[in-house]
């Protein structure tokens, strides 16, 4: 949860870039963390649930119309994310990775796990993903997402 991440950042005095002491940068992180719940998380999870879990539980394929509607909802918030939060910066809060970037990319991995490559036609988003993965470490990133990326093997 966001509350736990903030607690851990404060308790263990993580490097400043994760949750910046600079008030303007911290405001950007807080703004994203407040926005993402019903936007990136909400729409990304909805796509994952309707494309993977519901067909698995019901044994019924998803209608193309339903999938199209859910995908379009996600595309709207992805556009907002690029325009409002990424803009022309390497990361959400500026030139360094923060908790906002980490939370954002983790949430976007659910649609990827569902088979929707949301980075494919979004070069700005794909470049941001590459920067976040590099900042975290590619191996650690892959390890952390192994379960969600292999969910279809269930």
TrEMBL record:
Location of the protein in the cell: Cytoplasm
Coiled-coil segments on the chain, per record: none
Cytoplasm is among the record's keywords: yes
Sorted UniProt keywords: Cytoplasm, Transferase
InterPro entries recorded: Glutathione-S-Trfase_C-like, Glutathione-S-Trfase_C_sf, GST_C, GST_C_Theta, GST_Theta
Location (main, coarse): cytoplasm
Reaction it catalyzes: RX + glutathione = an S-substituted glutathione + a halide anion + H(+)
A GO cellular component annotation in the UniProt record: cytoplasm
Pfam families: GST_C
Biological process according to GO: glutathione metabolic process
GO terms assigned for molecular function: glutathione transferase activity
Database matches in CDD domains: GST_C_Theta (cd03183)
EC nos: 2.5.1.18
GST C-terminal domain boundaries: 22-154
Subunit field text: Homodimer.
PANTHER family, per database record: GLUTATHIONE S-TRANSFERASE THETA-1 (PTHR43917:SF9), PTHR43917
Family: Belongs to the GST superfamily. Theta family.
Protein name (record): glutathione transferase
Organism this protein belongs to: Alca torda (Razorbill)
Gene symbol of the encoding locus: Gstt1_1
């Amino acid at each position: 949860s966001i509350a736990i991440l903030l607690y851990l950042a404060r308790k263990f005095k993580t490097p400043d870039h994760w949750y910046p002491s600079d008030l303007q940068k911290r405001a950007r992180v807080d703004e994203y963390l407040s926005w993402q719940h019903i936007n990136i998380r909400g729409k990304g999870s909805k796509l994952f649930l309707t494309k993977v879990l519901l067909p698995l539980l019901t044994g019924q394929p998803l209608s193309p119309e339903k999938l199209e509607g859910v995908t379009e909802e996600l595309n709207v918030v992805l556009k907002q994310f690029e325009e409002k939060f990424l803009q022309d910066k390497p990361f959400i809060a500026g030139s360094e990775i923060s908790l906002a970037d980490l939370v954002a990319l983790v949430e976007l991995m659910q649609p990827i796990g569902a088979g929707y490559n949301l980075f494919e036609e979004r070069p700005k988003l794909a470049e941001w993903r590459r920067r976040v993965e590099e900042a975290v470490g590619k191996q650690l990133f892959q390890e952390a997402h192994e379960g969600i990326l292999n969910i279809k093997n269930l």
